Amino acid sequence: MSFGDPNSPYGQPQGGQPQQGQPGYGYPQQAPQGVPQQGYGYPQGQPADPYGSYGGPQEMPGGVKAARVMLFVIGGLQVIGAILFALSAATISAAQNSEELKKDVQFEQLADFSTGALWAATVAVLAWGVLAIVLGAKFGKGGNGIRITALVFGIITAILGIYPFILVGLAHTVMAILIAVFVGKSDGAAWFNRPRG
């Protein structure tokens, strides 16, 4: 029995077995090493665009979400601080008008505090907290101006947390530094500079 030409692709291979490195009948060809393989039957498409069809991220990045939450936390802490300042100012004001406490030696140091300064501090702390909450609320639709304001807010809060309020301001300092970092990163810039449609 003759199989024809020994070099014919349709002929019986020598030795009855497919040779090493050559595919047998029905087996797909393997691509050489180092060459990426493509699947059969489906064309390879473009990778998904992380910025969608508008040229900007469609979902707020995780760092920007974290910065937003930290702004809300700072705002809440500022409101609590404003309440404590207001209670202190009201207490000192009431105590300064009391005849019994005026004779107390320990109260003399407390009575020296200016209630006007405490009320001014209450307003300043409350205003800073409201600014933090407003900035956090604007993260969803705000532009680059909100980003820059949040960056400046984070830097100033970190500085104030270090110098005058070392013990109380430690949480503020850490959160403020993280806000400035997350908003200043490239994905934060991409979020705030995205086109709105």
Fold and architecture overview:
This protein has seven helices and no strands. The chain has 197 residues and is mostly helical. α1 runs antiparallel to α4, α4 runs antiparallel to α5 (144-162) and α5 (144-162) packs antiparallel against α6 (170-184). It has helices spanning 62-96, 99-102, 105-111, 115-138, 144-162, 170-184, 186-192. It starts with 61 loop residues before the first helix and ends in a 5-residue tail after the last helix. The protein has a domain at 60-192.
Structure keywords:
mainly alpha
List the helices and strands and how they pair.
Layout lengths: L61 H35 L2 H4 L2 H7 L3 H24 L5 H19 L7 H15 L1 H7 L5
Helix pairs in contact: 1-4, 1-6, 4-5, 5-6
How many beta-strand runs?
Answer: 0
Q: Mind describing the biggest β-sheet?
A: none
Structural class of the helices, strands and pairings? Answer: mainly alpha
Query: What series of H and E elements makes up the topology?
Result: HHHHHHH
Strand content: under 5%
Oligomer: single chain
Taking pLDDT < 50 over at least 5 consecutive residues as the criterion, the unreliable ranges are none
| Helix percent band | 55-70%
Average per-residue pLDDT, rounded, comes to 78
- Outline: rod-shaped
* Total count of helical runs of at least 4 residues: 7
Distance between the termini: 76 Å
Radius of gyration: 35 Å
